[in-house]
Amino acid sequence: MNPAPELFELSSGALRVVYSSVPWDSAVFGFHVAQIVELELRGELDAADADAAPFEDWCRRTSARLVSCRLPHDRLRETGWLESRGFRFIEMVYRPRLERLQERADAAGAIVVGRVGADDLPAVERIAETVFTTSRFRLDPHLDPVLSDRRYRHWARTSLADPTRQVLKAELDNALVGFFIVEERADGSAYWHLTAIAPGHQGRGVGRAVWQAMLERHRRAGLQAVETTVSAHNLPVLSLYGRLGFRFAAADITLHRAAFA
């Protein structure tokens, strides 16, 4: 389990910023990755620019080559301020959520869901490093796509040892066709951190059968709701969530500032 990173807070009359390093991405990418966790503009933009100096000094001292920030889509003032400081829009994300899971009955059909074991890990890693083509790290033109593929492979591998998560495999006719990384929360919901179907099984109706099998597994476990995060670029998966009855809250946007000069 990855320890929570240290948070730093800058608070003034014009600005509040909470920021941190992202140690797991830094380790995978080989350079310092940081994030803005919370951002609030409280005053005039000129004053906010001046008050941001400690944050910018920290970025320079730590050689932060990539800084990300995710905001609600309607935080236009904060978005514009970030853009004036070199951040660029990368993606929009939605958070599909399905409630009242106990009222559903999703037939698993031929899909068998089980825990990923050590013997399954190479196949899971091959899927992970291949399918996440709409991730924000793939969409950012400043980043080598190899870094994104490496990140998701690393995520799948380390999740196997994380006591807060389950890495589940979906099998069809004894062949591994996909995997999910799942966190069961104390409020009776499940959060899907990663969902993936192997490239050779995409576009053939397998995805819907896998999603239904996962939902049925959660229902039988007594869970009440399921939530996840999906890039707006991933149109086929967004359509699948809609057909399965998920509802979509207001979107968030992700901005990156990359410094590779």
Characterize the structure shown:
This protein folds into two domains: about 5-85, Aminopeptidase (3-Layer(aba) Sandwich); about 95-250, Aminopeptidase, CATH 3.40.630. It has nine helices and 14 strands. α5 (about 120-130) runs antiparallel to α7 (about 145-160). It has a seven-stranded mixed β-sheet. It has about 260 residues and is an alpha+beta fold. The protein has helices spanning about 25-30, 45-50, 55-60, 75-85, 120-130, 135-140, 145-160, 205-220, 235-245; strands at about 5-10, 15-20, 30-40, 65-70, 90-95, 95-100, 110-115, 165-170, 175-185, 190-195, 225-230, 230, 245-250, 250-260. It is about 35% helix and about 35% strand.
Concise summary:
Helix content is 33%, strand content 33%. It is of the alpha+beta class.
Mean pLDDT: 94
Cα radius of gyration in angstroms: 20 Å
CATH architecture of the largest domain: 3-Layer(aba) Sandwich
By CATH, the topology of the largest domain is: Aminopeptidase
CATH class division of the largest domain: Alpha Beta
Terminal-residue CA separation = 34 Å
- In CATH terms, the superfamily of the largest domain is Gcn5-related N-acetyltransferase (GNAT)
Cα shape: globular
The count of helical stretches stands at 9
Helix/strand/pairing category = alpha+beta
Number of domains: 2
What is the element string, with H for helices and E for strands?
EEHEHHEHEEEHHHEEEHEEHEE
Q: What spatial order of strands do you see in the largest sheet?
A: 1-2-3-4-14-5-12
What is the percentage of strand-forming residues?
A: 25-35%
